[in-house]
Design a protein that fits this description.
Strand order of the largest sheet: 1-2-5-6-7-8-9-10-11
CATH architecture: Beta Barrel
Largest sheet: 9 strands, antiparallel
Helix content: under 10%
CATH topology: Porin
Length: 231
């Protein structure tokens, strides 16, 4: 398979730095799908994304009392240049099992390693230490469900977030689990679906370092509905 890749987003997560136009991007990936038997399916995929470049930071003022460096008198800089270097490598394993006659279960597991280095060209490192962050992030999604012949279905599952941060700035490790549930109805030979869901049943707050790509979980109990039609 070959073709052209168009990326309409920043590689450096916007939650970490903000918008970053014109960045250089390198994306590589590999995926394997395996049908073990008529009831067991396995997918393994790996991805590597890298980005680096320069961007203008606007006005910047640095004073020694912030860093407790009395030998510096402080400085103000206009249109300083920010140096960014980011990479993330991830592995995704997806397992799905059909159970007669109407049940199924599965597990999605993603492991990712991310690294971000950010500094300023005009600011001495002795005055303001460049940011360095390295994280190991695990997302674990077990689920079990039931699909009836008449189109009704129900599914319950959990979502685990485990993140270990190594940074020269303040960061907090994460170890949190959320519970979700959904019920609905599929029709038109599964070309239509009505789904009602309850997310984050335990009403827990989760704060994840944005350096890793992930779907942002709700920080409180949430009810949602969806109507899906495929033509």
């Amino acid at each position: 398979m070959s073709g052209f890749l168009h990326a309409y987003r920043n590689i450096v997560p916007a939650g970490v730095y903000g918008t970053y136009p014109g960045e250089e991007q390198q994306i590589t990936g590999l995926a394997i799908d395996k049908k073990i038997n008529n009831k067991t399916f396995l997918t393994i995929s790996a991805q590597s994304i890298e980005s680096s470049g320069l961007t203008k930071s606007g006005a910047l003022s640095v004073y020694p009392d912030w860093r407790e460096k009395e030998e510096f008198e402080g400085m103000s800089i206009e249109n300083d240049t920010t140096l960014l270097d980011y990479e993330e490598k991830s592995l995704l394993i997806s397992y799905n099992q059909l159970i007669e006659p109407w049940f199924y279960l599965g597990l999605n597991y993603q492991l990712s390693f991310a690294s971000l280095k950010m500094g300023w060209r005009e600011v001495p490192s002795e005055l303001w230490e460049p940011m360095e962050q390295d994280t190991v992030f695990q997302q674990i999604n077990p689920f079990i469900g039931m699909q009836l012949p008449n189109g009704l279905f129900c599914e319950i599952g959990g979502m685990g977030y485990i993140q270990s941060n190594d940074s020269n700035h303040d960061t907090t490790d994460v170890n949190q689990w959320l519970a979700n549930a959904a019920c609905g109805y599929r029709f038109w030979n599964r070309r239509g679906e009505i789904r009602l869901s309850v997310l984050n049943i335990g009403n827990r707050e989760v704060f994840i370092n944005q350096i890793n790509y992930h779907k942002i979980p709700p920080n409180e109990r949430m009810f949602s509905g969806r109507l899906l039609l495929s033509f």
